[in-house]
Amino acid sequence: MARLSSHVIALFIVVALVCAFVPVFSVEEAEAKSLWNTCLVKITPKCALNIIYVVFGNGTLIESCCYYLVQEGKVCHDNLIKYIADRPSLIGRKAQYLKKRDDVWNHCVSISKTA
Question: Into how many domains does the chain fold?
Fold first, then answer.
C-alpha cells in the first residue's frame, strides 16, 4: 500500500510540473511567432544575421544593414535582441548584450540621419 501511495504522489508531482511549464512554453512560442511576423519580415536575413553576430559575437556591422534595422524599428530591435539574450546559455552576459544592442541602434540611427 505504501508503494502505491508513493507512485501516486510521484505521478501527481509530474503532472503538476507539466501543467506548470506547458503554458510557459506556449507563451514563448507565441512570442517568437509574433516577433517573426511583425519584425523579422522587415529586415533581410543577411542583415538580421549580421546584427545578431555584432551583438552576440565579434562581428563587424555592415553599414547598409543599418537602413533595414532602422526600418525595422527600435521596439522590434530591442525585443528581438532581448528575446535572444534571455536564452539560458546567454543570460549570464545579458547586460553586455543589451548594451551592444543599444550601441548598434545608436550607430545605425546616426548613419541613417547623415544619409
Answer: 2
* Cα 9 from Cα 114, distance rounded (Å): 66
Q: Does residue 6 sit in helix, strand or coil?
A: helix
| This prediction's pTM | 0.69
Asked if residue 34 belongs to a domain, the reply is: no
User: Range of 70's domain?
Assistant: 39-114
Nearest CA-CA partner of 55 in 13, 15, 102: 102
Would you say residue 77 has pLDDT above 50? Answer: yes
pLDDT digits (tens, 9 = 90+) for 47-60: 999 999 999 999 99
Contact 100, 82 (CB under 8 A): no
Please give the single-letter amino acid code of residue 38: T
**Average pLDDT over the chain, rounded to an integer:** 77
Residues 50 and 23 in one domain: no
> Degrees (nearest 5) of the Cα angle 40, 45, 50?
105
